[in-house]
Amino acid sequence: MSDEYQLDTLAVRAGSQRSQFHEHSEALFLTSSFVFDSAEQAAKRFSGEEPGNIYARFTNPTVTMFEERLAALEGAQACVATASGMSAILACTMGLLSAGDHIVASRAIFGATVQLFSNILKRFGVEVSFVSPTDVAEWERAVRPNTKLFFAETPSNPLTEVCDIAALADIAHRHGAWLAVDNCFCTPILQRPLKLGADLVIHSATKYLDGQGRVLGGAVLGSKALLDGVYTFLRTAGPTLSAFNAWVFLKGLETLRLRMEAHSANALALAQWLEAQPKVVRVLYPGLPSHPQHALAMRQQKTGGGIVSFEVKGGKEAAWRVIDSTRLLSITANLGDTKTTITHPATTTHGRLTPEQRAAAGINDGLIRIAVGLEAVEDIQADLARGLAL
Ligand SMILES: *Cc1c(COP(=O)(O)O)cnc(C)c1O
């Protein structure tokens, strides 16, 4: 379906499969196994000689519909859905890497991804080097003969640093490695990493794909050949997406473009307003001309996205005052929700780092991250203005 229709149509229609009941909305198949017509058919299904559903650890029609719809949006040949964003990253690395392999990863990736790479995969003999998200030459210098995977996340959390996907793909391919991009912040509506040369796309569907903060899920996308290894891992180890969650994401994808454009418009308006506030030292948003990689971001992404970070004068006390003065915004670590969320990275998402590590990462005590929701932007501004006036 991908070549024939535009993105909006794919978001609503791709992957739909009707049962014999001719339902209009996609059906939710809550069944752990599937019945065969005969012993012979069961044998053929298990051997792979005949396609079809077997057991919901690795086949479920609702999950398949979600995989096909997301694959159509990312322009990917194949998709494997997983129980969470973290299990997508686990399935990707366990499915494609072996002991002795080396990963070059951006330093500015999701905290749990850093822990997975540097603590857990390390115990299984996979090595990792962390490099600057924005200094392309550093990635090339980190390459070793055993480098198999480049791992980037763009824009990064919470500083919204932008990785040059095409440039990283180029370096990775010259050294016989794959580039995986965590596309959580942009979604395929704003950024399509495979079109820019990436080999794999990772999603935490928990965020914008759901869009209303309800369920966890994830996905790995790429070529059929690469996804074979990921699927084999999922089929065997079982970090499987539940059918219910897949159904929630299917519905979420139908409104994804409308939501991403509304999140982006609100985020830009909020970022511009924050830049004019005397208590605000700096605003980090790729859609602002003052962002260090604004030009690259506007080439690579359709908008600046929905995440805005800013630094207030007065360090932690001032930042906490702004957060605690809000009445509307939710003090929570989630993002990609219709409800605006506000976070103090230094004491929450990045609280496990030492003060030196935080300083090196550019996350200082005055920093606040806002995942801009779909409320009226004037109400979000008024909610922040209260704490900024103190
Ligand atoms: C949340 C998040 C993840 C992890 O996803 P879960 O669904 O929480 O496991 C990975 N990458 C990014 C960028 C995220 O924001």
Automatic annotation (TrEMBL):
Q: Please verify whether the record's keywords include Nuclease.
A: no
UniProt xrefs under PROSITE patterns? CYS_MET_METAB_PP
Q: Which organism is it from?
A: Thiobacter aerophilum
Q: Where are the N6-(pyridoxal phosphate)lysine residues found in this chain?
A: 207
> Sorted alphabetically, which keywords does the UniProt record give?
Amino-acid biosynthesis, Lyase, Methionine biosynthesis, Pyridoxal phosphate, Transferase
Please give the catalytic activity noted in the UniProt record. Answer: O-succinyl-L-homoserine + hydrogen sulfide = L-homocysteine + succinate
Class of the enzyme per the UniProt entry, highest EC level = transferase
Q: What does this protein do?
A: Catalyzes the formation of L-homocysteine from O-succinyl-L-homoserine (OSHS) and hydrogen sulfide.
User: By its UniProt entry, which Pfam families does this protein fall under?
Assistant: Cys_Met_Meta_PP (PF01053)
Q: Which GO terms describe its molecular function?
A: lyase activity
Q: What is its EC number?
A: 2.5.1.-
Q: In which pathway does it act?
A: Amino-acid biosynthesis; L-methionine biosynthesis via de novo pathway; L-homocysteine from O-succinyl-L-homoserine: step 1/1
Recorded protein name is O-succinylhomoserine sulfhydrylase
Q: How does it assemble?
A: Homotetramer.
Q: Which family does it belong to?
A: Belongs to the trans-sulfuration enzymes family. MetZ subfamily.
NCBIfam families listed in its UniProt record: O_suc_HS_sulf (TIGR01325), PRK08133.1 (NF006003)
